[in-house]
Design goal:
mainly beta; 683 residues; 22-stranded antiparallel β-barrel; 5 helices; 33 strands; 5-stranded mixed β-sheet; Maltoporin, Chain A
């Protein structure tokens, strides 16, 4: 029987915690070392406030500083998370359609992502039904990324098992002046970028534009991207600030097909497509966020409007099938942080989110008509999918002593999924439905800090996720998971890092199964996931050396299995059990130059739920990257990826149709590739 945290027991637990904390508080002094007041995770104050907040959480969390932590070419979302202890990210047939997973989120999904909350500047950026693509986020306009895994994402709306990932954009204060970037390299790849930021005492403005294109490593892997962003912030009154954001992204990409295992390793550039398999995605987003304070309470309030235009051709003939999604979404929310005592020992945090969206799904299917093609002869899809979500969360933090802090909270989630088929003769595989989901997300955690260098934490939580509309029907239940977590963070100067162990018992996980006729459906199955998220950084040169030489390591262990039924004990397909990244990075004084060598290892991938097809081969590839500051305003970059030109498979098509003995399920990664770039600051 699966463990489940019910709301009433949690309310009793929370009440007892508050009562015990209040009693203990009578006999303790200040706990400045554990104070996290006045540092909301999405604060406009920037990376320092987010770092302070994450370092006090009872569980896995990390900050990725784009300017400090990354080297070489940062092109895709997978590049961003390469050195993060807890984010699994691999790019497949479309470089920008990265599979991004935290604690197995969306493990068996065939395309796209779900299972965690993506935010841009603290505001939700998923589609309203919870699914998401990673193309809309431009690494070159990102300042830093805050990763709050599991229950640590609850205060940001991350009710799913994966938690929350917050992309924080540059603004006129963090990145003033004019900057241009030009990159070129393998596979006819070119990327250009320009940004401008300006600020005065009460306001700032930032605008940027990025364009890139490539022929791709494989046949039929061409892509072209355009990203435009702008934001304007100003202060008003004594304690308030508002920032407006505009984001536009347009991405066109051909889809290189999956291959048989033999083809993937002996002819990796091959694609079985004839040129009409592609996936085009456009996003427009308009949002605003206001922050301020009333006495001891700080707040963030925001609204956003988002349009998604998704066009996908799914047949490689001259007259392809077409799927057309047009989504309109609106959302609003607020968060508060209240300090209840002068010594910052007692803090209450609250969060409320509401969003609503309609997805108009159309498209056409080629058919035979008297032996002749006609196009379009019949509509394949003609329906409206509607999603609505309400999320609430309240959390209490109390310093039980000057070395021990308690965090306990609970949330309530409500979701509605509705489908209206406009023409019942179009596609008999879909039908009308309307279904409501609601559930609770309790958590309790402890952080023990015996000294300024070490944190030890434990956490117990329950996550909740309603199904995405691409998977939902009137029989699919919401996914719930109880997660146990223990771990530590440490920083002794020349040695720092973190390690977390978690185990999740999942009830009604979303698992894809083939239904025949080149289609599949999602059903509920119980699963178990356990894993290790770890990072270790060691300074190899002493303080007397003018250079810095860091040995940086990440190890992710993903042990995801079915629990019960005929599949019990089988590995979940799609995500490697072992993922190791190790990097040596040498930096000259004043960062005059920087060079790094990275080794990346991935174990083999299961393909089907039944584990009855050959896994991909484990592999290790190597990357070299460097940067030279040739003058105060000009820097040159070099990146050579897959130095040994290793042939490898890093993604697979989960549960390929028909599951034949020799399926086309394996997607090769890139061969050796080299890029050079120049960055000019016109200040």
């Amino acid at each position: 029987m699966k463990t489940q945290l019910k709301p009433l027991p949690l309310a009793i637990m929370l009440s007892c915690s508050l009562a015990a904390s209040a009693a203990i508080a009578e006999g303790i002094g200040t706990i400045d070392v554990l104070s996290t007041a006045a540092t909301p995770l999405d604060s406009l104050d920037g990376i320092s406030a987010s770092t302070t907040r994450l370092e006090a959480l009872p569980g896995g969390a990390s900050i990725i500083d784009i300017n400090q932590d990354l080297s070489g070419q940062v092109l895709t979302t997978a590049d961003l998370f390469k050195m993060d202890p807890g984010v699994y990210a691999q790019s497949g047939s479309v470089p920008f359609d990265t599979r991004i997973s935290v604690r197995g989120s969306g493990a068996t999904r065939r395309y796209g992502n779900r299972g965690l909350t993506l935010l841009i500047d603290g505001m939700p950026a998923n589609n309203v039904d919870g699914s998401f693509y990673t193309r809309a986020y431009d690494p070159l306009t990102t300042s830093y990324i805050a990763v709050a895994r599991g229950a640590n994402g609850l205060s940001l709306g991350g009710s799913q098992i994966g938690g929350a990932v917050n992309f924080v954009q540059k603004n006129g204060r963090t990145d003033p002046g004019l900057t241009t970037i030009l990159e070129a390299g393998s596979f006819e790849t070119v990327r250009t970028h320009a940004s401008f930021g300006t600020a005065d005492e009460n306001k700032d403005t930032f605008i940027s534009a990025t364009w890139g294109e490539s022929d791709g490593y494989r046949t039929k892997q061409d892509w072209e991207n355009v990203n435009l962003t702008a934001n304007h912030g100003f202060t008003w009154g004594n304690d308030f600030s508002t920032r407006f954001y505009v984001l536009y992204s347009d991405s066109d990409a051909e889809l290189a097909s999956s291959l048989t295992k033999d083809e993937a390793y002996h002819d990796p550039k091959k694609s079985k497509n004839n040129g009409h398999e592609d996936r085009d995605l456009s996003t427009f987003r308009l949002s605003q966020k206001t922050t301020g304070s009333f006495g001891s309470t700080e707040f963030t309030a925001f609204t956003y409007y988002q349009i998604l235009d998704f066009d996908h051709t799914t047949d490689d003939s001259d007259k392809p099938n077409i799927i057309d999604y047009d989504t309109d979404e609106v959302g609003l929310g607020f968060r508060t942080t209240t300090q209840l005592s002068n010594d910052a020992a007692r803090i209450i945090r609250t969060s409320f989110l509401y969003n609503y969206g309609v997805n108009e799904i159309g498209g056409a299917s080629r058919v035979y008509n008297g032996g002749m093609f006609c196009f379009p002869c019949s509509m394949k899809n003609d329906r409206d999918d509607t999603s609505e979500n309400i999320q609430t969360y309240i959390e209490y933090e109390h310093g039980l002593s000057d070395t021990l802090a308690l965090i306990a909270g609970t949330g309530w989630q409500y979701s509605q999924r509705e489908r209206d088929v406009n023409n019942s003769n179009v596609n008999t595989s879909v039908s009308d439905f309307e279904i409501d989901y609601e559930g609770w997300t309790p958590r309790v955690g402890l952080v023990y800090k015996p000294n300024e260098h070490l944190d030890i934490y434990a956490n117990l939580s329950q996550s909740y996720e309603a199904p995405a509309l691409s998977e939902a029907d009137d029989s699919l239940k919401a996914q719930e998971a109880v997660t146990y977590e223990v771990g530590t963070r440490f920083d002794y100067g020349r040695v720092n890092g973190e390690i977390s162990y978690y185990k999740s018992d999942i009830t009604d996980d979303f698992i894809d199964f083939e239904t025949g006729g080149s289609s599949y459906s999602t059903v509920n199955k119980d699963t178990q996931r356990e894993g290790i998220e770890s990072g270790l950084n060691i300074a190899l040169l002493g303080d007397s050396s003018p250079h810095q030489l860091w040995w940086e390591n990440v190890y992710r262990w993903n042990n995801f299995t079915f629990d019960g039924g005929t599949l019990s004990g089988n590995k979940l397909p799609g995500i490697a059990e072992h993922n190791i990244v190790s990097r040596l990075r040498l930096t000259a004084p004043d960062k005059a130059w920087d060079v790094s060598l990275t080794a990346e290892h991935l174990s083999g991938l299961e393909v089907t739920n039944e584990n009855d097809l050959p896994t991909s081969k484990a592999f290790t590839i190597y990357h070299l990257a460097g940067e030279k500051q040739v003058s105060q305003n000009v820097a040159l970059t070099l990146a050579i990826n897959n130095l040994t030109d290793k042939t490898y498979v890093n993604t697979v098509t989960v549960n390929p149709f028909g599951s034949p003995s020799n399926p086309t399920a394996y997607s090769p990664g890139n061969g050796i590739e080299a890029y050079i770039g120049a960055r000019i600051n016109w200040n």
